[in-house]
Design brief:
The protein is of the alpha/beta class. The protein has a domain at 198-259. It has helices spanning 3-6, 198-213, 220-223, 227-233, 242-254; strands at 17-19, 38-40, 59-61, 80-82, 101-103, 122-124, 143-145, 164-166, 182-184. It has a nine-stranded parallel beta sheet, with no helix packed on it. Mean pLDDT is 84; it is low at 256-264.
């Protein structure tokens, strides 16, 4: 048990830092603790509430709080926020414009990073399955970890200060900035860094994607007409697009082999 559970709130009013991590009984942080600047409340299984009165907080770590559903938008002085692995957390407030470091990895409901967080230089948003993009306005980012985000298709070229990018196992990712000093992109089958044949086949892939989107399966023969492209799409190094490959296989089975051009 922590001091919140064992002491009167009146005895805690002057605190500027408080640590109640791993407390199994704390349900909420008292709203009267308005002088707090640093709060560690990670791994509190019963915590459901961070009060919006803690406006002086500059650092908050509420990682591994399974019942926590929101971060108050009034905490505008936060510079560091750790809220990773909170399964009910659905969004990051766009009012937290002073954030320098944000760790929200492993939050399955977080679908976007606010573009207003322009002071960020360190962002960890890996394993967020609904996340679809990284805002191009985060131009101060030096470290980005967006690994295991299956819907991200690109990392903006405006992020010119990136030193390290961790984007492994993003199966739809097709482009990353080429100026990063450290680039970890294992398991991204469509990146040129991982497949030398990618640039040559990109136009065909884009047409294939567009036709699939509009259900025009009859135009397969206009794209899948060379042995080189077939070998590329079926390359064992490609880990994504299994449904597309199954459909390709069915279409190719109906095609006459003698009509396929060989490219040796």
């Amino acid at each position: 048990m922590c001091r919140i559970c064992t002491e009167p709130v009146a005895d805690l009013l002057d605190l500027t830092e408080f640590n109640c991590h791993c407390c199994p009984d704390v349900v909420a942080i008292p709203p009267e603790l308005v002088n707090l600047r640093v709060l560690w409340c990670y791994n509190c299984p019963q915590l459901v509430f961070i009060p919006d009165t803690l406006v002086n907080l500059v650092r908050l770590d509420c990682t591994l709080c399974p019942l926590l559903a929101s971060i108050p938008s009034t905490l505008v002085n936060l510079t560091r926020l750790g809220c990773s692995r909170c399964p009910l957390l659905a969004s990051i407030p766009d009012a937290l414009v002073r954030l320098i470091k944000l760790d929200c990895h492993g939050c399955p409901l977080v679908a976007s990073i606010p573009g207003t967080l322009v002071q960020l230089d360190n962002l960890s948003c890996s394993a967020c399955p609904l996340l679809v993009s990284i805002p191009p306005t985060l131009v101060r980012l030096a470290i980005l970890d967006c690994a295991h985000c299956p819907l991200i298709t690109s990392i903006p070229s405006t992020l010119v200060h990136l030193d390290a990018v961790y984007c492994g196992f993003c199966p739809l990712l097709t482009s990353v900035p080429n100026h990063a000093v450290e680039l970890f992109c294992y398991g991204c089958p469509w990146l040129p860094q991982n497949h030398a044949a990618f640039p040559a086949h990109l136009p065909s892939l884009l047409r294939l994607q567009r036709w699939f989107r509009h259900g025009k399966k009859q135009v397969f023969k206009r794209v899948v007409r060379t042995r080189a492209f077939i070998e590329f799409i079926y390359d064992p190094a490609q880990i994504g697009g299994k449904a597309v490959k199954r459909q390709l296989e069915a279409e190719l089975g109906a095609m006459r082999p003698e009509k396929m051009q060989k490219t040796d």
